[in-house]
């Protein structure tokens, strides 16, 4: 009897260890598949509902990037051959990229830097250190609490009363690590840079920055599944977990096929708007300060594109020409840097795909923030979501150059007038 109990205990330990181990993607490949119409794109997207063997990395009006397991490689090849869709390998082994994403221990382990990616706990320590170091101009934003009980934290940087406000939301999609890395770098730069232009940018605008909105999903990507995108709230009646938080805002929610009603899809919009507590918390906070906000930026990866409203319709907003001019200023400024990074721009529905219930549309339509963008960061698919750490600082420099130009053009066009007394 004792032997049986001991065996049971050992088996229980193995189960715990197995469940806690990280999911691996050995010999998973990512393919680029050029599509000719919406029907072909939808067929490929449908494959991604088999989450054990497929994962949708990117989908637009022109092409689909899809990750496939070695077990389903022949199936994908036969599937695309049947529709005369050529395959192009973008990533030959996903796990090799993941293994190379975190460098060996270095001096950067003892202090927060930007030569590696950090888990949520380290980002929170960084925020605490910033608050302690710059108490006169930096204050904490308590956005709310996630489904799993984590605090959603942000930083407000304000040098004086009466500044126009800029809000940055990052890591709403869990696997897009470069977004929180960029947000934390910007926080540090706005507070510590001695560059004259950066000082003006910092001191003449109020900055509201949330480095990690989807805290549960982000923690899960570090602990269990690097490729996780959604939230972690269970879905009633489904074995699939989470919703796409960038399809969960109450702005034309689930319209125009801009989100999925299937809980297993990456773009599942949730059972109703604001079903995800993280999205509801951010929306409540932004609503409470909307009179202080002139610009809303949602950081994403990847594709190198600035997406303006709308995502739910191909119709264009009344200030589309201004939105385009501001986006072009960002793109032109980034292109001038030595990295030669090319950003395109346009409305979400026309430039990339239909997306309803997204941050930028919600901020524009429901909160009257008339300069609102989703910025898809590096790259265009060579590394995708697994951008090497060596690119963090170059990318951040791109972003700062773009923001300097974006804000300058916004000011020229009259969008930075104070909205409150």
Fold and architecture overview:
- By secondary structure, the chain is an alpha/beta fold.
- It has two domains: 22-101, Alpha-Beta Plaits (2-Layer Sandwich); 107-412, Zn peptidases (Aminopeptidase, 3-Layer(aba) Sandwich).
- The protein has 13 helices and twelve strands.
- The protein has helices at 2-20, 38-47, 73-82, 94-101, 120-133, 177-192, 196-203, 215-223, 277-289, 320-335, 348-351, 359-366, 392-412; strands at 29-34, 54-59, 63-68, 87-91, 138-145, 151-157, 165-169, 206-210, 295-301, 305-308, 344-347, 371-377.
- It has an eight-stranded mixed sheet with strand order 5-6-8-7-9-12-10-11, sandwiched between helices. A four-stranded antiparallel sheet has the order 2-3-1-4, covered by helices on one side.
- Helix 6 packs across helix 13 and helix 10 (320-335) packs across helix 13 (392-412).
- It is globular and about 60 Å long.
- Residues 1-19 have low confidence and may be disordered.
């Amino acid at each position: 009897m004792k032997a049986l109990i001991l065996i049971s205990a050992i088996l229980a330990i193995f189960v715990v260890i197995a469940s806690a181990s990280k999911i691996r993607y050995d010999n998973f490949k990512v393919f680029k598949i050029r599509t000719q119409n919406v029907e072909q794109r939808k067929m490929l997207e449908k494959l991604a509902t088999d989450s054990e063997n497929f994962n949708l990395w990117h989908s637009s009006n022109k092409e689909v990037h899809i990750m496939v397991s070695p077990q389903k490689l022949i199936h994908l090849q036969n599937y695309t051959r049947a529709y005369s869709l050529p395959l192009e390998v973008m990533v030959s082994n996903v796990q090799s990229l993941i293994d190379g994403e975190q460098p060996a221990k270095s001096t950067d382990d003892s202090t927060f830097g930007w030569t590696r990616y950090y888990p949520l706990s380290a980002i929170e320590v960084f925020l605490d250190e910033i608050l302690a170091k710059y108490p006169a101009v930096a204050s904490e934003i308590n956005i709310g609490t996630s489904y799993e009980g984590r605090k959603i934290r942000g930083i407000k940087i304000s040098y004086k009363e009466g500044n126009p406000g800029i809000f940055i939301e990052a890591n709403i999609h869990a696997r897009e690590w470069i977004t929180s890395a960029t947000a934390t770098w910007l926080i540090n730069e706005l507070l510590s840079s001695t560059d004259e232009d950066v000082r003006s940018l910092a001191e003449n605008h109020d900055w509201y920055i949330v480095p990690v909105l989807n805290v549960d999903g982000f923690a899960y990507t570090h602990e269990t599944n690097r490729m996780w995108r959604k939230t972690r709230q269970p879905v009633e009646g489904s074995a699939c977990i989470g919703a796409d938080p960038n399809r969960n805002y109450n702005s034309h929610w689930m319209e125009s096929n801009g989100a999925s009603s299937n809980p297993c899809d990456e773009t599942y919009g949730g059972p109703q708007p604001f079903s995800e507590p993280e999205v509801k918390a951010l929306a409540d906070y932004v609503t409470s300060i909307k009179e202080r906000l002139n610009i809303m930026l949602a950081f994403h990866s990847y594709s190198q594109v600035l997406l303006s409203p709308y995502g739910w319709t191909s119709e264009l907003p009344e200030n589309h020409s201004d939105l385009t001019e501001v986006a072009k200023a960002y793109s032109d400024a980034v292109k001038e840097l030595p990295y030669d990074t090319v950003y395109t721009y346009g409305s979400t529905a026309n430039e990339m795909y239909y997306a309803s219930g997204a941050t930028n549309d919600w901020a524009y339509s429901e909160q009257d923030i008339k300069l609102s963008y989703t910025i898809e960061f590096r790259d265009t698919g060579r590394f995708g979501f697994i951008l090497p750490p060596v690119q963090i600082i170059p990318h951040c420099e791109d972003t700062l150059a773009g923001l300097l130009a974006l804000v300058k053009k916004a000011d020229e066009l009259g969008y930075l007038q104070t909205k409150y007394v």
